[in-house]
Amino acid sequence: MYFGIRRAVDVVNRDSRLSGLLITGTGDVFISGGDLALDGYDDDWADLADLLAMDNVPFEAIRNSAKPTVCAVNGIAEGGGLMIALMSDVTVASERAVFRAPELFRGIADMNYANVLPKQIGFARARDMLFTGRRVTASEALDWGMISRVVPHSDLSEHSLQVLRECCYGAPRARFDVKRAINAQYGSYDRMTMDLSLRDGEESAEGFRAFAERRAPSWIPEEIRPEGRL
Q1: pLDDT of residue 148
Q2: Which one is the CATH code of 2-184: 3.90.170.10, 3.30.70.2740, 3.40.50.720, 3.90.226.10?
Q3: Are 86 and 71 in contact (CB under 8 A)?
Q4: How many CB atoms lie within 10 A of CB 221?
C-alpha cells in the first residue's frame, strides 16, 4: 500500500494529463498503517523496518507534491494512515472516520508524529494522542484542526472530488510556492532516531511481537497490563 501510494504521487506529478490525486479506502478502513504481523508474506525482505528505511513511504512525497492531494477518509485512519491525512493538502472525513496514532504501543519512536502533531493540533492534544493512544472522532479531529471538513458518509466521494477539482483551479506555480511556505513551518524531523528505533530497538521488536501475538507488550507492569492487543 505504501509503495502504491508513493508511486501514485509520482505518476500524477509526471503525467501532464493528470491534475491531482484523491486517496481513499474501502469498507470501514481508510488506512490502518503498516502491517506489523506480516501474516502470509513469503518475501523475507518485506518487514516494516526495512520497508520504511527504503524511503518508499509516501508521507514526504504527499507533503511535497506539486499537484494537489486530497484525502477522503472513509473510516479507520491509524498509524501511517493518519500521517497521510495530515500531509495531504485537504482532508475530508466521513462522519464515521476515527483517527489514532498507536506507535508508542508498538515500541516505535515516531519522530515524524512528534514533530508534526504538536504544530497541527497543539502540544496538549498531541501528547494526549501519542501517549494514551486515544481514538479521535471525526468531529473532534475537525475541532482540533487535524482535518478541515466532515461530511455525511454518503456524500464523502462526491464532496472530496469537488474539493480536489477546486484545488486544481489554482495557478500551479503560485500554489506550489504557497505550499512550500506552509511545509516549511513543519520543519524537519529526526529521521536518524526513528530509524534506530525501528531497526535496532528492543522495544519495537517486542511491540511488533505483541501485535502479532494479539497481546499487550511485556514492558507494561503485570499488575496493570491489559488483556489483548492495544
Answers
A1: 96
A2: 3.90.226.10
A3: no
A4: 7
